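Annex B. Sample input.
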Amino acid sequence: MSRSEANGTERPRTWVKDLKAGAEVDEHFAVRSADLRQRRGGGPYLAAVLGDRTGEVTALVWQNVDRLREVLQPGTVAAVKGQVQRYNQQLQLVVRTACGVSGEAVDEEIFVRASAADPAQLWQQLTTLIEEVADPDLRQLLFRIFSDPDIERRFRLAPAARSMHHAFRSGLLEHTVSMASVARTLARHYGLSADLVVAGALLHDLGKIWELEIGPSIEYTDDGRLLGHLSMEALFVDRTIAELQAFPAETRRHLLHILLSHHGEYEYGSPRRPKTPEALLVHMADNLDSKVAGMLEAIAADGSEDEAWTPYSKILERHIYRRRPGGGNGPA
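Annex B, continued. Sample output.
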């Protein structure tokens, strides 16, 4: 479906961040999720999440549920008509009609935002981190992996997650460079193997390039759902190590342990918990970078500067205090 006016000109886009209660909406949105639910009084309704690169909004379908359920498929783009309403201090879009949008008419960059940092500069920072690794075996391994053209192409573009943190184009690269830089500083502070920590940090989410794919939304691949990024990257790194001559067995053991334990706890999908200081540090640096980035994203998201608190973040499981130190928000 075209977004053109009757005179053939492209009409201005209505971004999610600009939605206001009471507004009528006729726009293309990516379908992030859609769940069929039951009303308290009986009968089905559809609860969906629609989005673009500026944010997401809950969408509700009360009528023609079966037909619109076929249209509002996660990972696709739909042309939606409806009205914005406010419920429990949150905006929601009540959908009256919707129809699918063909792939040829979809500009994916409208629906998934990109890192504010320049990917070329981030890649140069990653390359510098590798060049500064003193251990010749680890440096050779890192160069072997990151000099592969297919890995570089995927790594420059990939998100770090589907929704948790750095969930945008080049988010993986931004997160990896930030985390590796912080981890190296901490390793030197504690007198640990900075080379091993940097190698583990640079490789800790390598499997995300095969686990996730970007279209109108960020979705899991089949391998991502079945295998997960930890197992894919550990297998890949181990195969690459086998191609190198005389790679030290103890270094291999330490590095693979970092990769397999960086989620920290079994309940977070970690096959192993960190059992070396370097593995613990990589896990903590990963958690630190992702949580701080998540908070900053919540503060920068919808809401005016006059509002002291963000909406409740399901991901962080809390409200975030918006006002920054020295912001001139009045007396304590």
